[in-house]
Design goal:
Layout lengths: L2 H23 L1 H7 L2 E11 L2 E6 L6 E5 L2 E2 L8 H12 L3 E9 L5 E7 L2 E2 H7 L4 E2 L10 H10 L12 H8 L4
Length: 174
């Protein structure tokens, strides 16, 4: 048998095995492969992490709001950011658009409730920063600039500190 035919046969076998494993894993694996899904927010951990129970079934999944960075709970304005998010999404139906997963297994996702981008909503009210990465100001930079100019939320504090800088100096709240 030629090398090309052997490789094709091995690739087909591998594909069949992967599909079989996904079938055995059930709806959870299928849901993970979906880019967009809806569910109900069951818990809010902090200002940028929620738990959403998929409408298709299964256990609630941790979702890290993509594009923002909210203060740590033990950081000034951390509890206020969490309270704002609780008031806006807890018990609500949301649309989740997953981009990737982080090191903690959370889906990094844009979340919409009643057609509103929740990450943008938090930044525009001064409850989170637009996430900065590799010298870029992040997807919500314009909303952050307006919230800063108006002194909203954490931007009304004289020494508001980015969560990653806070963690570097103090460690995690947990």
């Amino acid at each position: 048998m030629s090398g090309t035919r052997l490789w094709t046969r091995q690739r087909r076998s591998l594909t069949a095995c992967l599909l079989g494993l996904m079938a055995l894993a059930g709806p959870q694996a299928a849901l993970a492969a979906q880019a967009v899904w809806t569910g109900t927010v069951t818990h809010v951990s902090d200002g940028d992490t929620i738990w959403v129970r998929p409408h298709d079934g299964g256990m609630p999944r941790p979702i890290r709001l993509d594009g923002i960075d909210a203060p740590e709970l033990c950081q000034p304005h951390g509890e206020a950011a969490r309270a704002a998010l609780v008031g806006r999404v807890l018990g609500q139906t949301v649309q989740v658009r997953v981009r990737a997963h982080d090191d903690y297994g959370r889906a990094l996702a844009r979340v919409r409730a009643q057609r509103q981008d929740i990450g943008g909503w938090l930044v525009s009210r001064g409850h989170a920063w637009s996430y900065r990465f590799r010298g870029r100001s992040g997807p919500y930079a314009a909303l952050e600039a307006r919230a800063r100019a108006r002194g909203l939320g954490l931007f009304g504090q004289a020494h508001a500190e980015l969560p990653r800088d806070f963690r570097r100096r103090h460690g995690s709240c947990h």
